Amino acid sequence: QVQLVESGGGLVQPGGSLRLSCAASGSIFSINAMAWYRQAPGKQRELVAAITSAGSTNYADSVKGRFTISRDNAKNTVYLQMNSLKPEDTTVYYCSADIIPPNARVTRRYWGQGTQVTVSS
Asked: Which residues of the chain have pLDDT under 50?
Protein backbone atom coordinates (compact mmCIF):
# COMPACT_ATOMS: atom_id res chain seq x y z
CA GLN A 1 0.00 0.00 0.00
CA VAL A 2 1.34 3.40 -1.11
CA GLN A 3 -0.22 6.72 -0.25
CA LEU A 4 0.50 10.18 -1.66
CA VAL A 5 -0.85 13.02 0.46
CA GLU A 6 -1.02 16.52 -0.99
CA SER A 7 -1.24 19.82 0.84
CA GLY A 8 -0.75 23.53 0.26
CA GLY A 9 -3.58 24.46 -2.06
CA GLY A 10 -5.81 27.44 -1.45
CA LEU A 11 -7.03 30.82 -2.62
CA VAL A 12 -4.60 33.55 -3.66
CA GLN A 13 -4.76 36.82 -5.55
CA PRO A 14 -3.22 37.19 -9.02
CA GLY A 15 0.53 37.64 -8.67
CA GLY A 16 0.59 35.71 -5.41
CA SER A 17 2.38 32.50 -4.48
CA LEU A 18 1.59 29.04 -3.17
CA ARG A 19 3.73 26.05 -2.31
CA LEU A 20 2.29 22.58 -2.84
CA SER A 21 3.68 19.52 -1.09
CA CYS A 22 3.19 15.83 -1.77
CA ALA A 23 4.54 13.15 0.55
CA ALA A 24 4.70 9.48 -0.36
CA SER A 25 4.53 6.79 2.29
CA GLY A 26 3.94 3.07 2.58
CA SER A 27 5.62 0.11 0.93
CA ILE A 28 8.34 1.81 -1.12
CA PHE A 29 11.66 0.50 -2.33
CA SER A 30 12.59 3.58 -4.35
CA ILE A 31 11.02 6.47 -6.25
CA ASN A 32 11.99 7.45 -9.76
CA ALA A 33 10.30 10.48 -11.34
CA MET A 34 7.83 12.65 -9.46
CA ALA A 35 5.57 15.17 -11.13
CA TRP A 36 2.72 17.63 -10.85
CA TYR A 37 -0.29 17.61 -13.15
CA ARG A 38 -3.37 19.77 -13.37
CA GLN A 39 -6.78 19.21 -14.88
CA ALA A 40 -9.18 21.99 -15.74
CA PRO A 41 -12.92 21.26 -16.06
CA GLY A 42 -13.69 19.49 -19.32
CA LYS A 43 -10.03 19.14 -20.27
CA GLN A 44 -7.42 16.41 -20.23
CA ARG A 45 -4.89 16.17 -17.47
CA GLU A 46 -1.83 18.29 -18.27
CA LEU A 47 1.75 17.79 -17.12
CA VAL A 48 2.90 20.89 -15.26
CA ALA A 49 6.36 19.90 -14.05
CA ALA A 50 8.42 16.76 -13.55
CA ILE A 51 11.62 15.90 -11.73
CA THR A 52 13.81 12.82 -11.91
CA SER A 53 15.45 11.10 -8.98
CA ALA A 54 18.69 12.88 -9.91
CA GLY A 55 17.04 16.29 -9.95
CA SER A 56 16.59 16.98 -13.66
CA THR A 57 13.44 19.01 -14.33
CA ASN A 58 10.99 19.80 -17.11
CA TYR A 59 8.16 22.32 -17.22
CA ALA A 60 5.16 23.10 -19.33
CA ASP A 61 5.70 26.24 -21.39
CA SER A 62 2.81 27.94 -19.62
CA VAL A 63 4.57 27.81 -16.24
CA LYS A 64 8.24 28.22 -17.16
CA GLY A 65 9.86 30.98 -15.15
CA ARG A 66 7.01 31.01 -12.62
CA PHE A 67 6.90 27.51 -11.10
CA THR A 68 9.72 25.48 -9.57
CA ILE A 69 9.58 21.77 -8.82
CA SER A 70 11.88 20.24 -6.22
CA ARG A 71 12.12 17.11 -4.10
CA ASP A 72 13.49 15.87 -0.82
CA ASN A 73 14.48 12.26 -1.36
CA ALA A 74 15.02 11.63 2.35
CA LYS A 75 11.39 12.60 2.98
CA ASN A 76 9.91 11.07 -0.21
CA THR A 77 8.37 14.46 -0.85
CA VAL A 78 7.95 16.60 -3.97
CA TYR A 79 7.16 20.32 -3.93
CA LEU A 80 5.80 22.82 -6.39
CA GLN A 81 6.62 26.46 -5.71
CA MET A 82 4.16 28.58 -7.67
CA ASN A 83 4.92 32.28 -8.09
CA SER A 84 3.30 35.02 -10.16
CA LEU A 85 0.07 33.07 -10.19
CA LYS A 86 -2.53 33.85 -12.83
CA PRO A 87 -6.28 33.17 -12.94
CA GLU A 88 -5.55 30.64 -15.70
CA ASP A 89 -3.67 28.54 -13.13
CA THR A 90 -6.92 27.86 -11.29
CA THR A 91 -7.71 24.15 -11.20
CA VAL A 92 -7.03 20.95 -9.29
CA TYR A 93 -3.39 19.91 -9.02
CA TYR A 94 -2.34 16.28 -8.68
CA CYS A 95 1.05 14.88 -7.76
CA SER A 96 2.39 11.62 -9.09
CA ALA A 97 5.25 9.35 -8.12
CA ASP A 98 6.75 6.51 -10.12
CA ILE A 99 7.50 4.00 -7.40
CA ILE A 100 9.33 0.69 -7.36
CA PRO A 101 7.65 -1.48 -4.72
CA PRO A 102 9.69 -3.99 -2.71
CA ASN A 103 10.56 -7.11 -4.70
CA ALA A 104 9.42 -5.53 -7.99
CA ARG A 105 11.37 -4.83 -11.18
CA VAL A 106 9.11 -2.21 -12.73
CA THR A 107 7.77 1.13 -11.66
CA ARG A 108 4.14 1.85 -10.85
CA ARG A 109 2.57 5.29 -10.97
CA TYR A 110 0.71 6.50 -7.92
CA TRP A 111 -1.43 9.62 -7.62
CA GLY A 112 -2.27 12.08 -4.91
CA GLN A 113 -5.84 12.99 -4.06
CA GLY A 114 -5.67 16.42 -5.68
CA THR A 115 -5.56 19.88 -4.16
CA GLN A 116 -7.50 22.92 -5.34
CA VAL A 117 -5.65 26.07 -6.40
CA THR A 118 -7.78 29.14 -7.00
CA VAL A 119 -6.32 32.43 -8.27
CA SER A 120 -8.85 35.23 -8.09
CA SER A 121 -9.21 38.84 -7.03
From this structure: none
